[in-house]
Amino acid sequence: MKLKTTLLFTGCILLCSLLYTLLLKQSITMLTIINHTFLASLTFTIVGALLFVVQGGLFNGIAYSFKRFFARVTKNGTYAYELDGDLEFVQAPSYTFTYPLLLAGLIGCIMTTILSVVFYL
């Protein structure tokens, strides 16, 4: 399942880079394909890393602190806190496509870096 999703994201990276090349009306050369593929895979890597951080629960404490602060500052929040007692801790969302997205982006970045070194050094 994850291999199929990773291959799907890798195909999306290649398709996005080709569409970006055609959209900018640039000549299709090996250098433009490598550059645009690197940009697309870098975008996928950043989105995958952001989902990984959110899924890991980095912002749970911050969300809990804001929830607790607003429960004590506003009148309705104060009444609700007095009735219910303690606030529940905010759970981190879980995504099934985080690792395939991150893996496909990393594969794209590594491959385009290797191709650029091989062809243009």
Automatic annotation (TrEMBL):
Sequence ranges assigned to domain DUF3899 in this UniProt record: 34-116
Record key words, sorted: Membrane, Transmembrane, Transmembrane helix
Transmembrane segments annotated in the record for this chain: 6-24, 36-59, 97-120
Lineage: Bacteria, Bacillati, Bacillota, Bacilli, Bacillales
Short name of one Pfam family: DUF3899
Highest taxon listed in the record's lineage: Bacteria
Protein name per Swiss-Prot or TrEMBL: DUF3899 domain-containing protein
The keyword Membrane belongs to this UniProt entry's keyword annotation: yes
